[in-house]
Amino acid sequence: MYDNLVWTLVDIIPGQRTMGCKWIFKKKTDMDGKVHTYKARLVAKGYTQTQGIDYDETFSLVANINSIRIMLAIAAFHDYEIWQMDVKTAFLNGKLTEDVYMAQPEVFENAKHPKRVCKLEKAIYGLNRPLVAGISASMRESKSLVFLEAKMSLVFLVYGGEKELKVTGYCDASWQTDKDDSQSQSGWVYLLNGGAVIWNSTKQDTVADSTCEFEYIAACEASKEAIWMSNFIGDLGVVPTIQDAIEIFCDNKSAVALTKEPKDHEKSKHIERKYHFVRSKVEEGHVIVKHIRSEDNPVDPFTKALAKSIHDEHARFIGLRDKIEF
């Protein structure tokens, strides 16, 4: 801690709250039960801090797996080199923006200035403050191919082989799959560089009374993710095609037509206003909804049971492989 300049000794300020600290000792043993390491950790008594006085809020940044998959797909296309970094105590390296004072650690009091207190420059265990967590991802890279491997699975998600780096979306829905509340199931998937980067399968929160309506709802939900992808990838600045409207394929012609219809009519006037989000994004040129044959829609496995041969065909289309061939 001295080497990392975790704190500086300062004179105590009258009226300034100072929290205590304590040492946590632990013995690490080997498989035979013999002690091979003695560990000591200095922990702040953060439970003495009061929210709104000593700190405003606490949170921990975590990795968005969708963002990671997008960057892996881009890396595979451009043949970027991927590096893995795992910082086990990443949050301890973050500098504090608040003034936090702590008593000197027991047994390690400064002999010349025993009444001074520690003004924390960096975080320590037990402290209530916003934390920046380290991101650990296990990746393997090879030329034009990047793939992720699940430890307890034999299925791989593969990226690579596309001539153009372009986002393409597919959406679908199944009619009233829940027989208890008559709600339908929505599903969508987005492909980038030959593999799925974002997907979802969820029950709709309203009851639709026609195939057009529940497919339209699915298109609306998919379009929201398209907007996020457009903003995220656009900030990266390495995918020029993201400036174009993202194509979303739907296998219902009526739903596709409804996304382009500027006015409500007799059969659509009851649809909740929030689902017309997709219509506004089509008008603004952010997304475009196109028709695709139902048998060619790769998102079918997300909404319904299929024959194995058809299921495997769709799975392969979105980049899933049961083995890797180089």
TrEMBL record:
Any coiled-coil regions, as ranges: none
InterPro entries: RVT_2
The Reverse transcriptase Ty1/copia-type domain, residue ranges: 5-173
Pfam families linked to this entry: RVT_2 (PF07727)
TM regions (residue ranges): none
Name of protein: Reverse transcriptase Ty1/copia-type domain-containing protein
